[in-house]
């Protein structure tokens, strides 16, 4: 991956240089303050390491490629030793459920949905996809599997957008990231805030709040210092005319700790217009992720943030989570570096990624 180092006296100057060298989709991998040289040793500047995006999500809507991919997948799924994929990627309990579902789903489901099932979509979800896309407005009888897959793709994107509309919140709300310990909340928050401040130039504020446990995430303070963002340790009243974006970082809650969840729910209620995002680590197994999603569903959630996409390419997990929680994925994040990879999740691109990324699972 091509990385370039750019320095300048101000954040704005550095950002302009990054944009002109790498375009608007540039990923800021590292941002740090530097000391000036020579006599004016006290002068400070900024240094950025930037690159083009590396998360390998294909660009949406390339019909020819989709057709080719569907033909390829369908040929391989016909091969006699084609084991159901979900068996290989699900934990034991879920694999058994998969086997039952497999028998039940039989021919009721359309071929495209059965193919998605082979790619790791849970049988109940495949059946739902089958029914949903068959009654999708504008749906006419598809001529072949590729056309059927295209309809599934459109109907899923449409469904995703309807979920997003349902949970749409005020632009200036309080963005609260919650989830299990170590799922990547603080890292994702730092990435998101850096994009807003550095790339979109939105004034922002952050809170590193304690919950049932102390929040020791010093990395948030360091990132705020770098960005010139105020960070507070306690929640206080906010001026009515302060239209800064608000980011709240909280400690993780274990899924076997209902008392901590109750405390979290009460804490989130105190924020004005909370937009609460559940942060899930895509490298965890699907059973665990579904259990986390269920546990945190007691909070009103605005969407999911999926992290660790640098370590896991089975995008079926992401789709299973959307279908199980009925929440859209707001952002996907990959990598430990801040800001690093952090981007809006587009359903068409994630559908193509599902088809493209699981080739090894069919082998
Ligand atoms: N590879 C990879 N590592 C990540 C990613 N996001 C976070 N990490 C790493 O995962 C570890 C935990 O990340 P944090 O952001 O501190 O997680 P957290 O959810 O805030 O943790 P708690 O506040 O303790 O609940 C750190 O070592 C991060 O560098 C990611 O997308 N990819
Ligand atoms: Mg944290």
Key phrases:
binds guanosine-5'-triphosphate; 363 residues; 3 domains; binds magnesium ion; alpha/beta; single chain; 8-stranded mixed β-sheet; 14 helices; 3-stranded antiparallel β-sheet; 45% helix
Describe the fold and architecture.
This protein is of the alpha/beta class. It folds into three domains: 3-51; 63-165, no CATH class; 166-346, Rossmann fold (3-Layer(aba) Sandwich). 45% of the residues lie in helices and 18% in strands. The chain has an eight-stranded mixed beta sheet with strand order 6-5-7-4-8-9-10-11, sandwiched between helices. Strand 5 (204-208), helix 9 and strand 6 form a beta-alpha-beta unit. The model is unreliable at 78-99 (pLDDT under 50). It binds guanosine-5'-triphosphate and magnesium ion (MG).
CATH topology value of the largest domain: Rossmann fold
Task: Please state how the strands of the largest beta sheet are arranged side by side.
Answer: 6-5-7-4-8-9-10-11
Rg estimate, integer Å: 22 Å
Supply the number of structural domains.
3
Global structural class:
alpha/beta
CATH class of the largest domain: Alpha Beta
Taking the sheet with the most strands, its summary is: 8 strands, mixed
Distance between the termini: 28 Å
Shape: globular
- Helical content (DSSP H or I, runs of 4+): 40-55%
What is the typical, i.e. mean, pLDDT? 82
Portion in beta strands: 15-25%
Per CATH, the architecture of the largest domain is 3-Layer(aba) Sandwich
Unreliable stretches covering 5 or more consecutive residues: 78-99
Q: State the fourth-level CATH superfamily of the largest domain.
A: P-loop containing nucleotide triphosphate hydrolases
Hetero compounds = guanosine-5'-triphosphate, magnesium ion
The number of helices is 14
- What is the H/E string? EHEEHHHHHHEHEHEEHEHEHEEHH
